[in-house]
Design goal:
- By secondary structure, this protein is an alpha/beta fold.
- It has one domain: NAD(P)-binding Rossmann-like Domain (Rossmann fold, 3-Layer(aba) Sandwich), CATH 3.40.50.720.
- The chain is about 45% helix and about 20% strand.
- The protein has a seven-stranded parallel beta sheet, sandwiched between helices.
- Helix 1 crosses helix 9, helix 3 packs parallel to helix 5 and helix 8 crosses helix 13.
- It is globular.
- The chain binds 2-amino-3-ketobutyric acid (AKB).
- The site of 2-amino-3-ketobutyric acid has 12 residues, from strand 8.
């Protein structure tokens, strides 16, 4: 008999590590962890099975269908916005073809075991594209259906995959004689910039927040690649995991939409610097904008309207900016750098 399990792709990434820790802490069932690179021993120990492989390897995914009864998927593997700009073709293959492969796997699994497969997909504020700073400031907290005009390959990939997931859930093979639903229950949260105390991001354009905090904790100088006034929404990693799992377990009948904004706090880079300097006296933080990367951040909204998530499935962040710094980031990051190992660099999600 195949054991019911939850598949996590991109398991070595920042969100993957947090999700696996949360599942293990709650005893939420067996995790099958898939990533390009082998998981570190500590993380692997919290999984039922670990697979080093590529989400583009359709033979590997077929083996997963035959070996496991997958009841839910957290498809976290992706190339983030900055890295995707340097390798747009690879990003499209991983972010879009990879996601299509996993949606097809979910469909096959649902046909095999006769139950829906909940497909949890992290989208991003990168799906938004504010045309200029005046419009960004005037727009303030944007709702899901506003300004969906992404300017990055990653943002285009995430927006398309939101529609792909909605298609699988509601319109799959709508002209076929056999109108059996696909069995895929696609759900997605649009994450703001995520900040973890335990991993360092890589390949993102919102990474400057985590990079600034970790550099100060290490006593290293940090040249911020956006301007002081750059403002976007951020979220502490525990809230990101909370949003993913809360939506995953919400009754399907409560969902008025398939894609939800989730927010926590909005900070300018200067406000971030102020908080870091207050926590790490003497931290050497300068602003040396990389004009192209800064221009990407300027197309992302100052904040998001997450009222739909609050109304449909009771979303509410635990960490505003004060709590995120005082109760999560600072105590944990100081612990890492007070003689402990450096937070592991989150492996590029595969
Ligand atoms: C990135 O910077 O690419 C990501 C994101 C905002 O989705 N952290």
């Amino acid at each position: 008999m195949r054991k019911p399990a939850t598949l996590v792709t991109g398991a070595s990434g920042e969100v993957g590590q947090g999700l696996i820790d949360a599942y293990a802490a709650r005893g939420d069932g067996e995790i099958i962890a898939l990533d390009l690179r082998p998981l570190d021993a500590g993380l692997a120990a919290r999984c039922g099975a670990t697979i080093a492989g590529d989400i583009l390897d359709e033979n590997l995914l077929q083996r997963l269908v035959s070996e496991y009864e997958i009841q839910a998927i957290y498809h976290l593997a992706a190339l983030l916005s900055t890295r995707a700009e340097y390798t747009p073709d690879t990003a499209h293959r991983v972010n879009v073809n990879g996601t299509l492969n996993l949606l097809k796997l979910a469909h096959e699994q649902a046909r095999w075991h006769g139950r829906t497969v909940v497909f949890n997909f992290p989208s991003s504020i990168a799906v938004y594209g504010l045309p200029d700073l005046a419009t960004k400031i005037k727009a303030g907290r944007v709702s899901e259906d506003e300004h969906n005009v992404p300017t990055t390959m990653y943002g285009c990939n995430k927006l398309y995959c939101e529609h792909l997931g909605r298609y699988f859930t509601r319109h799959y093979r709508q002209l076929a004689a056999d109108r059996t639903p696909s069995g895929v229950d696609f759900r997605s949260v649009r994450f703001p910039g995520l900040i973890s105390a335990f991993t360092l991001p890589s390949g993102g354009t919102s990474d400057y927040a985590a990079e600034m905090i970790h550099a100060a904790a290490e006593g290293k100088p940090y040249a911020c690649f956006v301007s002081r006034d750059a403002r976007i929404p951020f979220m502490a990693m525990p809230d990101a995991i909370k949003a993913l799992t809360q939506l995953a377990h919400a009754p399907a009948s409560s969902l008025s939409r398939r894609v939800y904004n989730v927010g926590a706090f909005s900070l300018s880079a200067a406000e971030l610097q102020d908080r870091v300097l207050a926590a790490f006296h003497g931290a050497r933080i300068t602003f040396e904008p990389d004009l192209q990367r800064a221009a990407i951040v300027d197309t992302w909204p100052e904040d998001v309207d997450d009222s739909a998530a609050r109304a449909d499935w009771g979303w509410k962040p635990d960490f505003d900016a004060d709590r995120a710094f005082e109760e999560y980031l600072l105590p944990n990051i100081r612990g890492f750098y007070r003689g402990k190992e450096r937070p592991c660099d989150a492996a590029e999600p595969g």
